[in-house]
């Protein structure tokens, strides 16, 4: 990566499918009274509503890149990160806009030189609504106050640009938050720091058939790419473990959400769907370990 500009942040936004960028750009524009250079790169796979860009704060440097329709969210993030020249990069997605104080919190933590930090992910839908199911499965452990310290959200994380892979690797392979953090832990014994007042809000809609297919492909993508990383368990052991994986993943959610009554009530309400999702993920991991990821990663959104 090139020499980073001091006191600056490059915000990578992945816009997969029909994207509404108005909330993201409005939140960033409201706050841009900071003494910090802010650049935004939006990588998208469908045409954007340009009115949101035209109405954004002129002090924010905005770039857009149109990618093929089959581009995964991982590669959209990779494209949006590849040209970063700021001191720090932030990773968010268009369906989870930041809060109005998100950018000022980012600036404060950049000033503290924290290598990697992240914020909470809040539900945008009422927890009784079926659209909240995806949030419960993937992000409920990151609701404020965040007590989970073994996982970190991929749609609300900020880190030093120097930690990125090469530009070509980002374009060719995409940005894998999990693998980057594994490598950071192994090489520098560093884990992300949780920061309050730095939330994003989850507004993705839920379609059962589509979601179950995506979870299977996500599990396959993860498993197929996992053994390209160092210090992994033997592939045969991972394959043998997959039949009970759905149960362990469901129990993990249970333990995370039980102390939070509203989330736990929603978890019980949608438990059959949640279990179906974890079975789909586990089957995807089995396929990934056994036969590789193939084209599974392109389905991620």
Please give the largest β-sheet: 7 strands, mixed
Percent range of helical residues: 40-55%
The average pLDDT is 91
Q: What's the CATH C level of the largest domain?
A: Alpha Beta
Beta-strand content estimate: 15-25%
Rg estimate, integer Å: 19 Å
Tally of structural domains: 2
Number of helices: 12
Oligomer class = single chain
DSSP summary, beta strand count? 9
Q: What class do helices, strands and sheet pairing give?
A: alpha/beta
CATH topology of the largest domain, by name, is: Spore Coat Polysaccharide Biosynthesis Protein SpsA, Chain A
Taken from the alpha-carbon principal axes, the silhouette is globular
* H and E string: EHEHEHEHEEHEHHEEHHHHH
Distance between the termini: 26 Å
Q: Identify the CATH homologous superfamily of the largest domain.
A: Spore Coat Polysaccharide Biosynthesis Protein SpsA, Chain A
List descriptors.
12 helices, two-stranded parallel sheet, Spore Coat Polysaccharide Biosynthesis Protein SpsA, Chain A, 2 domains, 301 residues, single chain, alpha/beta, globular, seven-stranded mixed beta sheet
Short description:
The chain has 301 residues and is an alpha/beta fold. The protein is 43% helix and 16% strand. It has helices at 22-31, 50-54, 73-82, 102-111, 133-138, 167-173, 177-188, 208-226, 235-241, 245-257, 261-269, 271-291, and strands at residues 5-15, 37-44, 61-66, 86-93, 116-118, 121-123, 156-160, 193-194, 200-202.
């Amino acid at each position: 990566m090139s020499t980073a500009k001091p006191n600056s942040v490059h915000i990578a936004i992945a816009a997969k499918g029909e994207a509404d960028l108005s909330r993201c750009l409005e939140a960033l524009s409201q706050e841009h009274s900071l003494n910090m250079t802010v650049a935004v790169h939006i990588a998208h796979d469908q045409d954007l509503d340009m009115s949101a860009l035209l109405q954004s704060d002129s002090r924010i440097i905005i770039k857009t890149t149109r990618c093929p329709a089959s581009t995964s969210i991982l590669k959209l993030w990779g494209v949006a990160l590849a040209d970063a020249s700021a001191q720090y990069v932030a990773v968010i997605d268009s369906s989870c806009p930041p809060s109005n104080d998100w950018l000022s919190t980012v600036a404060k933590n950049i000033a503290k030189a924290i290598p990697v930090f992240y914020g909470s992910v809040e539900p945008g839908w009422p927890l009784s609504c079926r659209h909240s199911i995806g949030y419960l499965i993937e992000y409920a452990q990151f609701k404020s106050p965040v007590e989970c310290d073994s996982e970190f959200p991929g749609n609300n994380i900020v880190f030093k640009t120097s930690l990125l892979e090469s530009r070509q690797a980002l374009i060719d392979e995409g940005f894998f938050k999990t693998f980057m953090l594994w490598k950071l832990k192994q090489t520098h014994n560093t884990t992300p720091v949780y920061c309050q007042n730095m939330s994003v809000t989850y507004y993705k809609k839920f379609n059962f058939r589509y979601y179950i297919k995506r979870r299977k492909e996500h599990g396959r993508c993860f498993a197929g790419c996992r053994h390209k990383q160092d210090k992994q368990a033997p592939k045969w052991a991972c394959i043998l473990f997959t039949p009970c994986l759905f149960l362990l993943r469901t129990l993990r959610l249970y333990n995370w959400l039980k102390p939070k009554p509203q989330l736990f009530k929603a978890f019980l309400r949608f438990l059959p769907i949640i279990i179906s999702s974890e079975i789909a993920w586990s089957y995807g991991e089995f396929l990934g370990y056994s036969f590789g990821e193939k084209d599974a990663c392109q389905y991620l959104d």
